[in-house]
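About this split. The held-out portion is used to measure sequence recovery: a designer receives only the structure tokens and must propose an amino acid at every position. Recovery is the fraction of positions where the proposal matches the reference. Here is one held-out target exactly as it appears in the evaluation file.
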């Protein structure tokens, strides 16, 4: 009886720990769905029918719609369950003022290795700026005790 209980409990424990749980965020199968979007033939309505509403939009000269697909899982027990990215796909669509797709770029997890970030740092501002003086004068007015008028 004890052996079967031990066997069942070990089987239950190993079954739970050996399965990787994937967490998905964004549009599923973005890499396959983006192939259906054809430049200068697909319009906004077709894009929404295929992919749904965009994750992020940007309005400058042309509309820029951004779709995201991210899939993560926990890594091995040795790495203490740190999250590991399985997919990190980004689709950037540029739409002209007539509503037609004019440009599309698809980025995968491997493409992020090619992105170069600058090493430059933002210079810190001096305390003698107008904004700093204005806010410090407000602070002084708030902190000072209220004056009582004498009749």
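Reference sequence for scoring:
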């Amino acid at each position: 009886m004890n052996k079967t209980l031990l066997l069942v409990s070990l089987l239950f424990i190993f079954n739970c720990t050996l399965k990787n749980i994937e967490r998905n965020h964004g549009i599923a199968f973005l890499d396959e769905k983006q192939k259906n979007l054809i430049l200068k033939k697909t319009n906004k309505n077709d894009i929404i029918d295929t992919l749904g509403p965009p994750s992020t939009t940007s309005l400058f000269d042309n509309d820029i719609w951004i779709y995201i697909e991210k899939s993560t899982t926990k890594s091995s027990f040795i790495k203490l369950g740190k999250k590991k990215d399985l997919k990190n796909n980004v689709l950037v669509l540029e739409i002209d003022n007539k509503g037609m797709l004019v440009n599309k770029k698809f980025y995968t997890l491997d493409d992020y290795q090619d992105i170069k970030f600058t090493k430059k740092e933002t210079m810190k501002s001096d305390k003698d700026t107008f904004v700093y003086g204005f806010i410090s004068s407000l602070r002084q007015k708030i902190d000072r005790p209220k004056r009582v008028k004498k009749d």
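Annotator remark: The chain is about 30% helix and 25% strand.
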